[in-house]
Structures are given as C-alpha cells and as structure tokens.
Amino acid sequence: LVTAIIVETSMQSAKADRDAERKYQMKSAAKTLAEVEKAILSADQDGSGDVTKQEMLHAYTTDSVVRLKVDSVIDVTELMDLFDIFDDDGDGELSFVELRNNFMSYKADPIKSLL
User: How many CB atoms lie within 10 A of CB 91?
Assistant: First the structure.
C-alpha cells in the first residue's frame, strides 16, 4: 500500500511537471510570435496598413530595434519565409487581417507551429 501511494504521488508529480513545462513552452512561443508580429507591423513605411517584403527587409536592415527583435527569435531568412506563409492571397503584401488571422491560428498551438 505504501509503495502504491509513493508511485501514485510520483506519477502525479511527473504529470504536474509536464503540464508546467508545456504551459511555459506555450507562453514562451506565444511571446516569440508576438515579438515577430510587432516587428512586422513596425515595418509599414507608407502607413498603408499593409507590409511588403521590401518594407520588411528595409526595416530589418535599417532599424536596429527591429533587427534585434527579429534576431532574438528567428533569422532574416525565416522571417522572409514567414512572410510567404502568411501572405494568404499571394499579393506580395501582408495586410493586418492576414497577419492577425495567421498569428491567431499559430497561437492556438504555438509549439506545433514552431516545430
């Protein structure tokens, strides 16, 4: 009986540890995605509400804050890939709606989206 209690307590503790780690990973991944989202939105040079690849690349190469935010989570190649993935209509621009919808779907399971 004592052994069963010890085993059960250990199993509950291990599950709590896994749950805490998963929650931490999800929070960390969501924060990472939020930083990328901010960097992308700050790249809108003409105030159109849409961001082109050129605007994003210009912001990355000329704005050290944007570069630091992006480099802290992904490299510039991954950023350009992310642009292509999020550009749902293929028009070469990311609208706020495209960006928000894609980030919302990625935030639903951020760990899966980053793998």
Answer: 11
Would you write out the chain's pLDDT as a tens digit for each of its 115 residues? 778 888 888 888 888 888 888 888 777 767 766 776 676 677 888 888 788 988 988 887 887 766 766 677 677 788 788 888 888 899 999 887 787 777 767 655 544 554 4
* Cα dihedral 47→52→54→60 (10° resolution): 70
Calculate ∠ Cα 95-56-46, nearest 5°: 65
Q: Which residues pair with 93 in a beta bridge?
A: 52
Full-model pTM: 0.53
Kindly write down the DSSP assignment for every residue of 13-50, as one continuous string. Answer: HHHHHHHHHHHHHHHHHHHHHHHHHHHHHTT-SS-SSE
User: DSSP letters of 46-66?
Assistant: S-SSEEEHHHHHHHHHH-HHH
